[in-house]
Design brief:
This protein is an alpha/beta fold. Helices cover 30% and strands 24% of the residues. The protein has a seven-stranded mixed sheet with strand order 5-4-3-2-1-6-17. Strand 13 and strand 14 form a beta hairpin. Helix 1 packs parallel to helix 7, helix 3 crosses helix 4 and helix 3 packs across helix 5. The longest helix has 25 residues. It starts with 11 loop residues before the first strand and ends with a helix. It binds flavin-adenine dinucleotide and nicotinamide-adenine-dinucleotide. Nicotinamide-adenine-dinucleotide binds next to helix 5 and strand 18.
Length: 486
């Protein structure tokens, strides 16, 4: 018999999918006393660890060093040219030749893959230590309380479950006339086998994935063309941040084609040609398609056991990760709630707390922080300005460029800003955007403010180090106070 939400913690939890949605849930379920089996067909850590978050951010770490190195001459750093002529002169003036930093892509990719695989092994070891059973194979629901697993050897076994958690994630969307070949026509999962830096990389799609890869490859030294179907890059993000990043991209030599929708791609003798819907063509040595994801929900037996899917194929869940079928929960990208690793993990944990009768706080997206790992980074928390306007919320906003910040000047940082939204009446911080180097770190005080309903005055009262980037956060908060007194 199934364990109901108010039964004592017990029973067998079967988790299908070992990404952040699945493995974090497994750890919580073990802590709550359940027997837990994770069914995973690729590797523990899921796409997040093996193909998406970890590899892309590791690649971007190298790109970040290249961006910093580019700025070195401005900070008075000169390197002598190599005698063998390997390095050309770089930088203004040309009086003192400097070394050109060059990317050894196979070395970068080897590091990326080693790091991803080590992290996957760490997660496996952690689950082992906690007593989670791991079954390698493809899972499928044959009943709401039974999961069939086809192993890599083709053998099938059935697991009886009191609770099932579906955490099968998503995969890259593929255009019918642009089939990836893993060599020249690529999805983001295939970027880590490239033997050399693409000479001219066409990136199709200017969402977060497209922007991150286009920015990184520009920094790594590739000639990049970003094909964006919309008016601007990062259409879903804060307009000031998107405008800034597009300007920085073009300043760094990227070609951004707006209102350009790709319809097909084909290989030529030594590269690719991408055809746009209006008939124009874009040539490159390689093309990366970053045109969104599709949930991995077909062939899982979900509809057969009565689990409701949305028209986009996502599993329909409520705020405690329940599907419409008792005992079947879902978490992460397969639900389409908010495709972030952090949200997947939270949904998975909530699902287990609910299923195993522990105290549970329903999912709230109000204070989720997110970061786009471009250079500069774009970090956001709370409500966006677009959402505040849509909902007719009375809000005030202040924004300061980082260029005025003394620490930024010392570091040679020119591009970036801090923007805070506060409620007109109460002064409560409703949301914020930080654009700058390591914005992913500096957003945290504002995440605390949004999470705990602090006012802009309370943020302003906290002291900041002088000189520091966070000084600008304090200053923007003070500007909101002055406006309230007008
Ligand atoms: C390029 C890129 C960069 C990203 N960067 C970030 C970032 O910096 N920060 C962030 O928070 N988010 C980031 N994301 C989003 C993040 O990757 C996802 O939100 C996260 O992976 C979702 O976790 P998940 O557990 O739902 O699914 P996944 O990580 O996709 O894991 C699902 C797992 O289920 C397995 N599986 C599927 N079907 C079956 C089956 N039938 N049987 C057994 N196993 C199965 C798969 O093999 C996979 O391992 C990024 C996404 C992309 C595409
Ligand atoms: N740093 C991070 O946290 C991070 C990084 C990557 C992805 N993600 C998560 O994944 C989500 C999805 O991001 P994404 O960028 O993969 O997908 P997306 O769906 O947000 O963006 C895809 C873009 O491609 C465009 N597009 C679609 N078809 C096209 C075509 N034929 N030609 C040209 N453009 C086309 C779309 O208009 C869209 O702007 C993000 O919202 C985020 O939650 C997070």
């Amino acid at each position: 018999m199934r364990a109901a939400a108010d039964d004592p913690p017990a029973g067998h939890v079967v988790v299908v999918g070992g990404g952040p949605g699945g493995y974090e849930a497994a750890l919580v379920a073990r802590r709550l006393g359940a027997r837990v089996t994770v069914v995973e067909r690729a590797g523990l850590g899921g796409s997040a660890v093996l193909t998406d978050v970890v590899p892309s951010k590791t690649l971007i770490a190298t790109a970040e060093w290249m961006t910093i190195a580019d700025r070195a001459p401005e900070l008075g750093i000169r390197l002598d040219a190599l005698a063998d002529g390997d390095a050309g002169p770089v930088g203004a003036g040309g009086a003192a030749a400097v070394l050109r930093h060059r990317i050894d892509l196979p070395a970068v990719n080897a590091r990326v893959q080693a790091l991803a695989s080590a992290q996957s092994q760490d997660i496996r070891a952690r689950l082992d230590r906690e007593g989670v059973e791991i079954v390698t194979g493809t899972g499928r629901l044959v009943a709401p309380d039974r999961v069939a697993v086809t192993g890599t050897d083709g053998r099938e076994q059935e697991l009886a479950a009191d609770v099932v958690l579906v955490a099968t994630g998503a995969r890259p969307r593929v255009l019918p006339d642009a089939r990836p070949d893993g060599e020249r026509i690529l999805t983001w999962t295939q970027m880590y086998d490239l033997p050399e830096l693409p000479e001219r990389l066409v990136v199709v799609g200017s969402g977060v994935t497209g922007a991150e890869f286009a920015g990184a490859y520009t920094s790594l030294g590739a000639d990049v063309v970003l094909v964006s179907s919309r008016d601007r890059v990062l259409p879903g993000e804060d307009a000031d941040a998107a405008e800034l990043i597009e300007r920085v991209f073009t300043q760094r030599g990227m070609t951004v084609m707006s209102r350009s929708r790709a319809s097909s791609a084909r290989r030529t003798a030594d590269g690719v040609v991408v055809t746009l819907e209006d008939g124009r063509t874009v040539e490159g040595s390689h093309v990366l398609f970053a045109v969104g994801s599709v949930p991995t929900t077909s062939g899982l037996g979900l509809e057969e056991v009565g689990v409701r899917l949305t028209p986009s194929g996502h599993v329909e869940v409520d705020k405690v990760s329940r599907t419409n079928v008792r005992g079947v929960y879902a978490a992460g990208d397969c639900t389409g709630v908010l495709p972030l690793a952090s949200v997947a993990a939270t949904q998975g944990r909530i699902a287990m707390s609910h299923a195993l009768g522990d105290a549970v706080r329903p999912l709230s997206l109000r204070s989720i922080s997110a970061n786009i790992f471009t250079a500069p980074e774009i970090a956001t928390v709370g409500l966006s300005e677009a959402r505040l306007q849509e909902t007719g919320t009375h809000y005030r906003t202040s924004m300061l460029p980082l260029a005025r910040n003394p620490r930024a000047k010392m570091l040679g940082v020119r591009d970036g800003f801090v923007k805070i939204f506060a409620h007109t009446g109460t002064g409560t911080v409703l949301g914020a955007v930080v654009v700058g180097p390591r914005a992913s770190e500096s957003i945290f005080p504002l995440t605390l403010a949004v999470t705990h309903n602090l006012t802009a005055d309370q943020v302003a009262e906290a002291s900041t180090v002088y000189p520091s980037m966070s000084g600008t956060i304090g200053e923007v908060a003070r500007m909101l106070h002055q406006r309230a007194q007008d």
